[in-house]
């Protein structure tokens, strides 16, 4: 029987490429570039999946949804998150809360954060006020600052289901 809470941390990055939007937190956001990825490139949800899997010591998103498997080509990352949540529940845990930080110079994310929060909460099966999403720039430093891509970090707290 699981008797203790678990914490997980995840990070993901994707490089910009051709496209007219990015998908972050399950929300399609207009942009003059897309993100290069095997799936939809949603770095926020990929980091969250890694945090959930890491909390249970189940490896990372690439282990469960490898980019060598065409079944996940252009996959909707919300679907991947829901599959990860099935694993979380099958191991006897539920999400207490999650905290995500998206690092991007562009596009501007603040108009989309509430919708991202609501979608993630629905997929995790928790209240929206248990999902924190923050956006920041890197003050023009590094690959994010040079507008070469987007980075996301996620932390989750899991509790045993009693």
TrEMBL record:
Pathway it works in: Isoprenoid biosynthesis; isopentenyl diphosphate biosynthesis via DXP pathway; isopentenyl diphosphate from 1-deoxy-D-xylulose 5-phosphate: step 4/6
Q: Which residues are annotated as site, described as Transition state stabilizer?
A: 38, 137
- The residues that the entry says bind 4-CDP-2-C-methyl-D-erythritol 2-phosphate are 12-14, 38-39, 60-62, 65-69, 136-139, 143, 146
Q: Which domain of life is it from?
A: Bacteria
Q: Which GO molecular function terms does the record list?
A: 2-C-methyl-D-erythritol 2,4-cyclodiphosphate synthase activity; metal ion binding
Pfam families tied to this protein: YgbB (PF02542)
Reaction(s) the record says it catalyses? 4-CDP-2-C-methyl-D-erythritol 2-phosphate = 2-C-methyl-D-erythritol 2,4-cyclic diphosphate + CMP
Which cofactors is this protein said to need?
Answer: a divalent metal cation
- Free-text remark on how the cofactor is bound: Binds 1 divalent metal cation per subunit.
Alphabetical keyword list: Isoprene biosynthesis, Lyase, Metal-binding
Which residues are in the 2-C-methyl-D-erythritol 2,4-cyclodiphosphate synthase domain?
6-158
Q: What does this protein do?
A: Involved in the biosynthesis of isopentenyl diphosphate (IPP) and dimethylallyl diphosphate (DMAPP), two major building blocks of isoprenoid compounds. Catalyzes the conversion of 4-diphosphocytidyl-2-C-methyl-D-erythritol 2-phosphate (CDP-ME2P) to 2-C-methyl-D-erythritol 2,4-cyclodiphosphate (ME-CPP) with a corresponding release of cytidine 5-monophosphate (CMP).
Per the record, the similarity remark reads: Belongs to the IspF family.
Quaternary assembly: Homotrimer.
Question: What's this protein's name?
Answer: 2-C-methyl-D-erythritol 2,4-cyclodiphosphate synthase
Biological source species: Fluviicoccus keumensis
